[in-house]
Fold:
Amino acid sequence: MRNYLGHISVIASTVLAGSLIFAGCGGGGDTTISAAGTTISGKAVDELILNGVVEVHANSAAGSIIGTGRTDGTDGTYTIDVDGFSGVAVVSVKCDANSTLYFPKTNTTKSCPTDTHLYSAAPVEGDGSVTVNVAPSTHVMFMMATGGDANATLDKQKVEEARSKTAQIFGTDPIESDPTEGIYADVIEAFHAAAEEANVSIQELVEEVAEDAADGELGDDSNATDILAQNMQENNVTTPFVEAVENNTTFTPEVPDNAATLDDVAAAKAFFQNLRTQGDDLFDEGGLFDSEAKAVESLMENVTLNGDLAGTVLGKLADAIGRGIENNSTQVSQNLVTLPSGDSRDANLTRSSATSNIWNYVITDTISGTSTSIASGTVTLPAADPDNDIDPAAFTSLSFSFDGTLPATKLYESTQETQSFKADATMTKTTDGAHFEVSDITLSTADGTKIGIKGFKADIGYDYNESNQDDPMTLNYVKLTDITLDGALDSNYTATGTLSVGYTMNSSLATNGGFSDKFTTEVGGHIGCAPTDPNSNYVDYANLSFEITMDDNSTYTVTTDGSGNFHETIEGKEYTDTDFWNASITFLGTCANNGNPSIDSLWADDEADLIVGNSGYVPNTMSFSGVLKNVQSGTELDGTVGVQLLNAADINMTDLDNVNDDPHVKSTLSGTLKRAGLDDMSLNLTHEFDPATKTNHATLAYVYGATTVNAQGIYNENTEDGNVTITSGNGLAMTIVFDSDGIDYNATTPLTKGGKVVGTLDNETGIARIKYIDGSFESLP
Structure:
């Protein structure tokens, strides 16, 4: 299970590595649409102009007045109705004797100079509310739009082009962004500082900068422009305009023929900000998926520990019951474990008569000589007589049940705890063997929390040869097909769903057969030479060879060391020390004392490794479908997580200890992510690694609120030489191309919205960044 989150994380980390780098900066006022009528609203800023005189003209400063009013005496905002108007609204703000300037940082006011006269402009189309802020930067924009003639007639194209150029100068949308916040407020402070440095009024400085900008080029006509750029830099405002002045060059803002609007830029920034936020929350280290994966991994280790411990104990209980049935016993004992200290864990099983199919068990720990009963329960077998009525080759159906407690901790642990286990099992005969189902499982963790594993299904293939009395049953394959979860996994998680496993045939693995034991025997001892001459001494049979011939006629040649000791490893055979004592020994050397050699000590130890061929069946698909929930946080994933091993049939598995073929893995996740206090997120992730081409393919798609994100990437095994394409539901698109040297800026496409350019990727400052057409940019991490 751990390997499969990690592939999402790869999906997430790989796709998002290309997409999260584009977080937009800055903000702005929102335009809200009302049911009827048209209103123009905004803020008038020199610092805040309180009680300023506002006039709205139609299409030019000399146009008819379509609305008048004053700015608010507290915050400098204004709202004016211009019902029925469609065109360019030119807004002017003047100061009279009743107007004041308010400085929020110092909470002070002063009279507003009566020469203050700032302009702004914005297209008005249909009913609704249009934000038109008025500030020194909008005055520059207005003069650029009019070409320096305040009375020139404006249209939407001229205003939008000037708006984009002004954004490149000051790094923010001059009309809609709030002049009292963020980078815009820093620009206003730079205007005041520049006016003080140039020893002119703010109005004079604004008009001089506006006049310089009116011809489309800044820095060629006025020293005031340079002073402003220097003060912007000192206020930590960096734009292409500021960079040009730093390099002693003029700056000419340019708008591409296919440039998007600043509204599109704002939409792009909002999109990438959403993407960054969701990416950080979900996929970064410490994010939701990272923390959930680590928690589930820890949980599964806990569940596995308890499950393995339960399985070991159940297996030994089954062995004991088998001996009891074979010997017609009513009582049988089984050692479960004995430690070097002598402490032990044992089970005692009883039944009421030799024909009873219900066995009672008690498990006892004996520690430092003191015995304590720690678990007990019953095992119910089929009522049929196993010797006469159950034919493993032809039975129809058998049922078993278990009800009781089992140890939940190892014997050596300082505190001993138990876990409950209850289950019903049915085995149904099939052509190849049997279908096995376990249902109504109740299994607890060590703390008593019920684990929500409710059942599983498996297909078992076997052959039964009654004539082979020592080992009549040959296991061919086991295919675990379904695990049913419904309930708590621990105190933090619940799961409801099914884990399904599919299989395919691997011909190379099939050469190992089904299940078999590979035995290894270690034999050792000492050989000495008894003297035949009374005057000679006993000596070692040193550095000499001898031959062992076993009862099965296998012959092994062994050589002793300089002290007469020998040690030999025999592969593929199971021998005991008795087998060696009964073997025929031929000594191939002559003792140094010409005496008679003999084995005076001998030991033997055999081990068996299980060789799993599983008749060639290997898992090639695994998927969990259902709901995983963190009950503490309320986070819930309702969907499907799947893994496919696409080349499972072709991997060379002849030697299971030396499998060198790379797996062709495809991982998927799809579903709905639910988080407390947030909108549901529809999420789809895929990742595929093709070992033949050493290529990764990854996709990400999610819908969160009004934001739709689609990303897909292709890259090599070193996450190099590839590309990532990002698109959004509102028309944003960009393809980032990269190679072993990093981003290929020439091949990377511009960021567009609806086919129009919103920004481009560059590294003009030596740092990779996305540069929006409004002059703002974001450095890449």
